[in-house]
Amino acid sequence: MARTGYQLVDISPWPLSASFAALGLTTGMISLFCEGMSNFVLVLALSSFSLLVFTLVRWWGDVILESTFLGCYSSYVVRNLRCAMFLFILSEVFFFVSFFWGFFNGSVGELSMQGVGMWPPKGINPIYPWRVPFLNTIVLLSSALTVTWAHKAVSAHNMVDYSGLYLSLKGKTESFSSSKYYQLHGLFSLGFTILLGLFFTYLQATEYYMASFSICDSIYGSTFFLLTGFHGMHVMVGTIFLIVCWFRLYLLHFSYQHHYFGLDAAVYYWHFVDVVWIGVFASVYVWGY
Domain range holding 17? Predict the structure, then answer.
């Protein structure tokens, strides 16, 4: 690092174990779709999911160790990670573009003109958009405000020296009080964001349970559940991301002059999820109704 400014990553087993976990989950899902539930599918899914959770915990733990305690992440490394996060979000954008493309192709495109003839297809009773979906929109947009509040609080917390705890100077003591004040603000707002994310997931699951159609009901059911389901999965991943950041903030990982890129990445990801939901609500729920 002294010569290049970049960290030379040590050999790690976690990319390999994550690949095996993803392979096992994919194989189990394909077997479930083709052959139905069996002992093989259940054992493969549980073992792969356990391996994935173990890999993520250890991998994130190594990253936190390198960045926070070993000081391996210079400004060059953080800039590299920031660019990588933007590229990852860009790939996620095109991931959702494919589902929106399928939805509009089925509703106003070639498939609709040749086979369906009307949208939603006859026999499908779509979900009324101004009840649970509209409440979900309010919840998710409110979480965007609270996560921005947390981001600003952590940014201020990062700029205040904690050394006032050990010094008797008046100014330093006030600095410590301010740092603690911003940390508490960040913990509260970030925790409230996590609760809103969990509430959104609960409302989405309730909506699925109450829906009058399933993923097997024509192209409408397939595109609806794929689009909203993958968005819900991203909400759950983002919620876990924010929970990790909450504990890191509690443990003072984002204190004075410690970079907080982990929180930056979580906030970027959460705002992306918010924007996607606006598109889902406007096109699938409102326009599709």
Answer: 13-72
Cα separation of 67 and 262, whole Å? 10
Other C-beta atoms lying within 10 Å of the C-beta of residue 243 = 17
**CA angle 53–58–59, rounded 5-degree value:** 95
Q: Is the dihedral of CA 94, 245, 155, 262 positive or negative?
A: negative
Has residue 281 been placed in a domain? yes
Is 58 contained in some domain?
A: yes
Q: What is the pLDDT along the chain (289 residues), one digit of tens a residue?
A: 445 666 677 788 999 999 999 999 999 888 887 877 888 888 999 999 999 999 989 998 888 888 887 877 777 888 888 999 999 999 999 999 999 998 888 887 655 555 556 778 878 888 999 999 999 999 999 999 999 999 998 888 777 765 544 334 444 444 455 778 888 989 999 999 999 999 999 999 999 999 988 888 888 888 999 999 999 999 999 999 999 999 999 998 887 677 788 899 999 999 999 999 999 999 999 987 7
Q: Which residues contact 137 (CB under 8 A, 6 or more apart)?
A: 277, 278, 281
> Could you give the residue ranges of the DSSP H alpha helices within the chain?
14-35, 39-64, 75-107, 110-111, 132-158, 170-210, 218-250, 261-280
Residue type, 191: G
Residue in the block written with tokens 């204190």:
255
Contact 237, 143 (CB under 8 A): no
Same domain, 151 and 265: yes
CA 162 – CA 180 distance, rounded (Å):
8
Residue environment code for 83-95, b if the CB has 16+ CB neighbours within 10 A, otherwise e? eebeeebeebeee
What is the maximum span of the chain, computed from C-alpha positions, in angstroms? 79
Asked if residue 89 and residue 64 are part of one domain, the reply reads no
